[in-house]
Design a protein that fits this description.
Shape: globular
Strand order of the largest sheet: 7-12-13-11-10-9-8
Largest sheet: 7 strands, mixed
Number of strands: 20
Helix content: 10-25%
Structural class: alpha+beta
Strand content: 5-15%
């Protein structure tokens, strides 16, 4: 299977080809690259155009994560209820495609083809309707988790019911049972699933990294009343107004030329919509330079092709973006320049080589052969139980983060699907960091007062959000160190911080408290620096636990059911061969970013990575 990073989560749901991924926010196109083991031809039998990791699950959202587990859809059956009580509006995939001009793979039928299809074999079409919203006496929507200060996952503007389907996306044959693949949000029969992955889809939901429980249910009046009688010294923090960049920083000019193909018969958004999903064929040449060979991956925002650069006589990864704005492309170019200065030999990161517009935007990137670490863990659950194998992941990720910090950039989406396991010339494993679609500048290199985390509502996969991201603090390199530590935990134990839409930001933060063994909740020293209204989101002293509104409109205080790293690496880890791994996790899983070590310090101080095998 191909291991592709085409996110715009990347959600891996986001994106890898994530969907989600599971990305929490709508992501810009990825600067990630592509690694693959084998390639399927575009011609002949419909190929599965998404490199998937052998998993399926019941999430139907705009950003889909790659997690174990599957849910069976039976013809005529209702969609299963969410695992959690929280009601989160979700956008149907087909509706999303029509609204955003995005495709989840394959060629969609024209209205005429749909009309001529056999209706006897298809389930009756249901009308998509906006679900009724009940307004309580306080004027708030019942079951809504919306809040002007909430750290919950941003939600779609509309919620629609999913259309039933009984046709396998690959073989186009009706099947009694279909399985949803979160990598591309398409449903497949068991036969096609087994043919692609080599195993039947799992039917169990993954376990959480840390179990979370409801510590207490709070009436809203009691929560606000107790906070009214409490003083949190130093909160709210002083407002620092953003200052413009100094003129000296704007003096130098750096330009990039982008080719745009002119189509005289295509003018306006409607005309573009008619051709935006037309397939590219093997042998087709784009921009008078790149010959298409085969499709190797597809996500919510991009479709990746293996192509040949006819000028350089080399293989490249060509990505077709469904909504590549000039602003998003400028971001990718800026990040690429910064990273290229620190990694001139392209050892740690992929390279953005070219970009052009032909109805839609295209980017051309270096090709990386390998597998993403999540796919490896799912195909061989015991692979990363070996400290030696996990050490290669830690080394590759941390070395890449050192260069990113020097470049003044933050990845914001460090997770197993974005860590590509490759082999160096001598056969030594080497892990590379890909998919820079969520990357931003480190707040320390931006003008004073800027806080993109607050302005944009965070970035990256919700399951790897650092505590400071949930609190909307300015984000630095330390946030990537947190994401690396969480990735190591997940790869080792096979459990995940984020599993489905019921795992909101409050659930993720509660798990973080458990890993850090913070039995009194979020430290006041961290809470007082948040620009959010913490009185609505956390319980008052002496325990500051995150508060979530459930489907009944009740406020639930969440806390971990277990504490410490023992739940991840075992009770006696200090006395066995996991001691060095445990000390690295203890060293990096620090809730306050001001006290969390840099990647360079981790490499210098932790024996797990300091003594390279």
């Amino acid at each position: 299977a191909a291991a592709v990073s085409t996110d715009g989560s990347g959600d891996a749901a986001a994106n890898k080809l994530q969907a989600p991924s599971s990305k929490v926010h709508s992501q810009p196109p990825s600067l990630g690259s592509i690694g693959f083991e084998s390639i399927e031809s575009v011609e002949g039998r419909p190929s599965r155009n998404v490199p998937r990791t052998g998993t399926a699950e019941s999430v139907n959202s705009t950003e889909m994560p790659t997690l174990p587990g599957a849910v069976i859809w039976e013809e005529g059956a209702q969609k299963p209820a969410p695992v959690k009580e929280v009601v989160i509006p979700r956008l149907n995939v087909d509706d999303l495609q029509s609204k955003q001009g995005e495709s989840s793979g394959g060629t969609r039928q024209s209205p005429g083809e749909q009309a001529g299809a056999s209706r006897a074999k298809e389930p009756p079409t249901k009308t998509l309707q906006e679900p009724a919203k009940e307004v309580g006496p306080d004027g708030k929507l019942s079951g809504s988790m919306a809040s002007t200060a909430s750290t919950c996952t941003p939600q779609a503007g509309a919620s629609v019911a999913a259309l039933a389907t009984s046709t396998c996306h690959q073989c186009k044959i009706e099947a009694h049972k279909l399985f949803l693949d979160p990598s591309d949000t398409n449903r497949y029969c068991e036969s096609c699933w087994a043919e692609y992955y080599g195993t039947t889809p799992g039917r169990t939901e993954p376990l959480p990294l840390v179990n979370v429980e409801v510590a207490e249910v709070w009436p809203e009046s009691r929560l606000s009343g107790m906070w009214a009688d409490t003083i949190l010294p130093g909160w709210p923090p002083p407002v620092v107004h953003s200052t413009p960049a100094p003129r000296s920083a704007r003096a130098g000019q750096e330009w990039s030329n982008i080719k745009v193909r002119v189509h005289r018969q295509i003018v306006g958004p409607h005309a573009r919509e008619q051709v935006i999903n037309e397939p590219l064929y093997a042998g087709e040449i784009l921009a008078e330079r790149y010959r298409i060979k085969t499709v190797v991956g597809e996500g919510h925002f991009t479709k990746a092709f293996l192509a040949e650069d006819l000028q350089e006589r080399m293989s490249v990864c060509l990505k077709r973006h469904r909504n590549l704005s000039v602003e998003a492309l400028a971001d990718l170019l800026a990040l690429g320049k910064r990273m290229g200065d620190r990694d001139p030999d392209n050892k740690h990161f992929p390279v953005l080589r070219d970009a052009f517009y032909d109805v839609v935007g295209f980017t051309v990137e270096t090709l990386i052969e390998g597998r993403n670490c999540l796919a490896m863990a799912q195909s061989d659950p015991g692979f990363f139980k070996s400290p030696a194998n996990l050490r290669h992941v830690a080394l590759g990720a941390l070395r890449g983060l050192v260069l990113l910090e020097e470049a003044g950039a933050v990845h914001n989406d460090v997770k197993p699907d974005n860590l590509i396991w490759t082999q160096e010339a001598g056969g030594q494993p080497f892990v590379k960091l890909v998919d820079f679609g969520c990357a931003r500048l480190d707040s320390r290199v931006e003008p004073a007062g800027r806080n993109w985390s607050l302005a944009e509502g965070g970035a990256g996969h919700l399951g790897k959000w650092s505590p400071e991201m949930a609190l909307r603090l300015p984000i630095t390199h330390a946030s990537d160190v947190w994401g690396t530590a969480i990735s190591l935990c997940e790869l080792y134990c096979g459990r995940f911080m984020w599993r489905n839409e019921g795992d909101t930001a409050e659930v993720i933060l509660a798990q973080s408290l458990g890993l850090c063994n913070l039995r009194n909740g979020v430290p006041p020293s961290l809470l007082r620096r948040s620009p959010l209204d913490v009185r609505q989101l956390y319980t008052p002293p002496p325990h500051h636990f995150p508060v979530r509104q459930n489907s009944h409109g009740q406020l639930e205080a969440l806390r971990p059911a277990r504490w410490g790293l023992e739940q991840v690496i075992g009770e006696a880890w200090r006395e066995n061969n996991k001691a060095e791994l445990g000390k690295l996790l203890e060293f990096t899983l620090v809730v306050d970013p001001a006290n969390r070590p840099k990647a360079s310090r981790v490499l210098e101080s932790c024996p797990f990575v300091a003594s390279t095998p």
